[in-house]
Amino acid sequence: MNLGDDIKAFLPKYLSEERVEDLFRELKQFPGNIDGRLYSSTQTEELLQGDVIDQLPIVLLPEERIELRSSLIVSNTCDISTENRRYVPAGAVYAPIIRLDKWKTLIENSRHIEGKPLTDYLRSIREQRVSSIFYLPTGQGIEHESLVLLDHLCNCSANHVVRKAKEGKGRIASLSNYGFYLLLFKLSMHFCRIQEGTQRS
To answer: For the chain, what is the domain count?
Structure first.
């Protein structure tokens, strides 16, 4: 990625000058540094956007099945904070996670493969170039290369998600500043692409 100093205007203002420089350095190395650097070595008590939580309910439609899977929190940190008082209990939005090897098998068994070769597609995933997928390399509690499916969102009570994060394996991983910035960029690309090319009247 060819970044000029102008990108610093869009980096988080709450970070110290040293942390901003660290984040800028990481971004300049993208995509050659998509590895364990995506994860934080520390975890807070607070549930954070981008945390990976074990055993959240995933609704599979139209089969009307529910499975428990590891998932990545998509809701922003403030909206799911239990510290915030509100009239209606908050919900938490999250995206299911699937191992990359299982995803590859699903594609290989599909009769609807089109476009570029599978190896190119997998490389695009690993380089965070597929807008509907957030790639998770191995590291911290992530034992296998995995994918966050941003087009398969689910939700349930934020209180339930917070409880899940605190029990058993609970929270598997938290994103570093670098990983979180990549997630925000990916969410923006997937959900908020302003240049859609459609005239709206």
So the answer is: 1
Domain that holds residue 76: 31-190
Using one digit for the tens of pLDDT, what is the confidence trace for 139-154? 988 999 999 999 999 9
Global confidence as pTM: 0.83
Domain for residue 200, yes or no? no
Assigned domain for 19 exists: no
**Token couple for 98:** 């699937």
In a domain, 12, yes or no: no
